[in-house]
Amino acid sequence: MELFPPIPYTGWADTLATVHRFAQVVGRVRLGASPRRNHWWNVPFHLTGRGLTTRPMGLDPTFAIDFDFHSHLLRIDVVDGRSASFPLVGRSVAGFHADVVAGLAAFGIDSGDLAGARPFDLPDAGRPFAEDTEHAHYDAAAVTRYWQVLSQVNVVLEEFAGRFSGKTSPVHHFWHTFDIALTRFADTAVDHPPSTDPVTREAYSREVVSTGFWFGDPANPFPAFYSYTAPEPAGLADEPLPAGASWVAAGSSHLAVLPYDTARAAADPVATVLEFAEAAYRAGATRAGWDVEAHASGGGVTDPHRR
């Protein structure tokens, strides 16, 4: 298929809103059933050849939940061989939530606080998933396109991840913000005040440069690649970025942004994305005082005899 096919935000905004909430329902299960890991690395989804997976979780029993975006099903699989699935098409968020709760109960899996769960950081955060009959739009073709774009971006981010030999997160898909990203870490601890929320304190307990891709939202209605440094060092937005990219104010900090359509139009879209990611990373890491060259890993290789 086409590399970086078009996926304008306005063309599937209603479907995106529905699938985002589907993902948050399953994400709440993952949050409750997975062993805790540093920086919340246990919580996001990973990609499969057909969609997204929670990965195995729980011990009594061990199970996984997968989105299949080719057949448009949600699957619950238990390691003893039991399995259940139901279609994603034609369901409201309330219906989807009910099916997940019932599916888990049928296998004797504790769904924790899922019954009363609500969206995280979305406009309808005050309404339980179980009462959301508003979001019920599911365009199967658009969801397949989303999955195809996500898969291609995943591979590009994996290549970028290999160019750094320090501590790096997996490339993973965040269900709360619906973006895909990887994060590079310094050893420098960040002293957050106690008033900072615990999610932020854990996610950003070290200096980071994060690079990713999101599909757009009402405030930024276009898909784009992005990068940010946290805490943001002084003068970051004065650093140059490749043609087509720019620094965008985001509250008191800045995002480096490369619109997806700009990358699509380039003669070499993959090289364009990698050039952007490297420039934004070096801008943040250099300003923050990291030893950039010491952590360089050209072509994913650290062995000096194989470079």
Automatic annotation (TrEMBL):
Pfam families referenced in this protein's UniProt entry, alphabetically: DUF5996
InterPro entries: DUF5996
Name of the protein: Ava_C0101 and related proteins
Species, as recorded: Pseudonocardia sediminis
Organism lineage: Bacteria, Bacillati, Actinomycetota, Actinomycetes, Pseudonocardiales
